[in-house]
Specification:
Number of helices: 0
Number of strands: 26
Strand content: 35-45%
Radius of gyration: 29 Å
Largest sheet: 6 strands, mixed
Order of helices and strands: EEEEEEEEEEEEEEEEEEEEEEEEEE
Oligomer: single chain
Helix content: under 10%
């Protein structure tokens, strides 16, 4: 238990690293240190640290493309970013003499996806240039919107200190074929084939990790399915409203071949990553009714009961195009619609637009969309478009005669 609101750091230190790590001088006498930082603050609510789903021990071959992804998963749906940092030793201090693996300008980590690539700038390919054991560290940062300021703030981090062993070998990693990133409406099923092939027709084991396997209604995949040369597994996930979140779910597919050429054998890994965004269905049956100089709106409650309210958007004039669902979330600014109000409470399904107390104008067709909103700021697809004009139930001036023109004494 934590005694109160604060930022806490949990760490682990081991007295010795492996002997002979090429980028840490005297590695056998250098401690191994990792840590996790977490923020306990009622403003942000409960927080779980990100979980690393891909083990940080990998092998590769000299001159063969190398890629790794920690496949971090945050149970709270917080945004994650990645950064390379120096490996740490005694007490968490940076190790003196530590360097990144050979070719520092070519050893890169994508801050958004977490893809770690070892590039040889001479050939512009992901090719480690030297064999041996290497240590690198990845900092995974956790971000969440501050409900008071609306700014995204770093509320925690996790350090991964990983070992990469590069051998001199002839094997090449399997190649994985997966669909492109996709979107799905909550309550719908997503199902597709994931296949891998090996250039030498070696036996391949196929695995998948990621957020969809960590939720209460987990996806299924035949983990460890094996075959020689080519292997195919079926990813299957029946989503529900609890899966709705602002950020996509990342799934990493891993294919490991059984090296039958080298002694000792070097089994290599092929990786491919896919993002799946789960979006809430739109509120249904939006209806507009003019009342005096206001327009009264009503719609059905959002079918996802974990919604916390609604956003209202307005435009002068009808929008003739359609908003694609599910891969378009909310109401894009390109439609010409403007956000005008927010209604909190899933059962509060009415809104009266009085133009912030100024009243609406006669002769204009006002059109509206409504979306559902969720705790993590995610939005549903847009409702049906509903339009209305004020009724001409009171005298309206439609023509004016100019009797005289003057800066101060003009008359109409």
């Amino acid at each position: 238990c934590f005694p109160g609101a604060a930022t806490y750091t949990l760490s682990m230190e081991d007295a010795n690293r492996n002997e002979g790590v090429k980028n840490i001088p005297g590695s056998v006498n250098i401690p191994f240190f990792i840590s996790t930082t977490i923020t306990i603050d009622p403003v942000f609510g409960c927080d779980n640290s990100p979980e690393v789903l891909n083990q940080p021990i990998e092998v590769g071959c000299v001159g063969v493309p190398y890629i790794y992804n920690p496949n971090a998963w945050d149970p709270d749906g917080d945004s994650l970013s990645y950064a390379l940092i120096p490996c740490r030793g005694l007490g968490g201090s940076n190790i003196i003499g530590f360097t990144e693996p050979i070719g520092t300008s070519s050893f890169t980590l994508d801050p958004v996806t977490g893809d770690l690539k070892w590039l040889n700038p001479r050939y512009n390919n992901a090719n480690p240039a030297d064999s041996g054991e290497w240590n690198v560290a990845i900092l995974i940062l956790e971000w969440r919107k501050n409900p008071r300021t609306g700014e995204y703030m770093n509320i925690g981090n996790v350090t991964v200190d990983m070992q990469i062993t590069i051998h001199t070998c002839t094997n090449v990693p399997p190649v994985i074929n997966i669909p492109p990133d996709t979107c799905v409406l909550a309550g719908s099923r997503i199902r597709f084939d994931d296949s891998a092939s090996d250039a030498y027709f070696f036996p391949i084991d196929l695995y998948a990790t990621g957020g969809p396997f960590e939720v209460s209604n987990p996806a299924t995949f035949p983990q460890g399915i094996s075959n020689s040369g080519n292997v195919t597994g079926i990813f299957n996930w029946l989503t529900d409203c609890n899966n709705v979140q602002r950020l996509p779910y990342t799934v990493t597919f891993k294919a490991i071949d059984l090296d039958m050429l080298d002694l000792p054998p070097v089994d290599l890994t092929g990786l491919a990553t896919m993002n799946i965004t789960v979006i809430s269905p739109a509120p249904k049956n939006l209806v507009d009714t003019p009342m005096g100089n206001t327009i009264y709106m009503h719609w059905n409650p959002e079918i996802c009961s974990n919604a916390i309210g609604y956003k209202i958007y307005r435009k002068n004039g009808f929008y003739s195009d359609s908003i694609q669902c599910p891969c378009t979330v909310g109401v894009p600014a390109s439609t010409g619609f403007t956000f005008i109000a927010e209604v909190l409470g899933i059962n509060d399904t009415t809104f009266t637009d009085d133009n912030n107390g100024s009243g609406l104008n006669h002769g204009i067709k006002y059109c509206y969309f409504v979306t559902a909103i969720f705790q993590d700021s995610s939005e549903s697809c847009a409702s049906n478009q509903a339009c209305a004009q004020l009724k001409k139930d009171s005298p309206i001036i439609t023509n004016v005669s100019i009797e005289s023109t003057d800066v101060t004494a003009g008359r109409i």
